[in-house]
Write a structure and sequence with these properties.
The protein is mainly β and about 130 residues long. It is built from no helices and 11 strands. The protein has strands at about 1-5, 10, 15-25, 35-40, 45-50, 55-60, 65-70, 75-80, 90-100, 115, 120-125. Strands 2, 4, 5, 6, 9, 10 and 11 form a 7-stranded mixed β-sheet that branches. Strands 1-3-8-7 form a 4-stranded antiparallel β-sheet, with no helix packed on it.
């Protein structure tokens, strides 16, 4: 499985961005997908996750109400719509494929994801 994120950039506080993660491989449509982020000097942290059908989602408290995760299995793509961006959202954002070991459960931790993209930089200026 290969994952390629896109859509990052430099924006001002209050702006919006939509990240995309294009996946290759047949496992995409049956796997949960997650978004994580890592700021300089910080550990990678959970942002959002979505189950295989798109019917169940989970969010970190810090982004709840501002970010929305969605997926299009026909396009093998997962999205992260980010609204009302804040300077503290500045980080490299990664998408990841959920491990089959946790099928049916959304896990807000990196150990539950097997494949990762290279990341896309999001910078929010104040």
């Amino acid at each position: 499985v290969q994952l390629v994120e896109s859509g990052g950039g430099l924006v001002q506080a209050g702006d919006s961005l939509r990240l995309s993660c294009a996946a290759s491989g047949r496992t995409f449509s049956s796997a949960a997908m997650g978004w994580f982020r890592q700021a300089p000097g910080e550990e990678r942290e959970f942002v959002a996750a979505i189950n295989w059908s798109g019917g169940t989602t989970d969010y970190a408290d810090s982004v709840k109400g501002r970010f929305a995760v969605s997926r299009d299995n026909a396009k093998n793509t997962v999205y992260l719509q980010m609204n009302s961006l804040k300077p503290e959202d500045t980080a490299v954002y990664y998408c990841a494929v959920g491990s089959a070991r946790f099928r049916g459960v959304l896990v807000a931790a990196a150990y539950a994801y097997d494949y990762w993209g290279q990341g896309t930089q999001v910078t929010v200026s104040s």
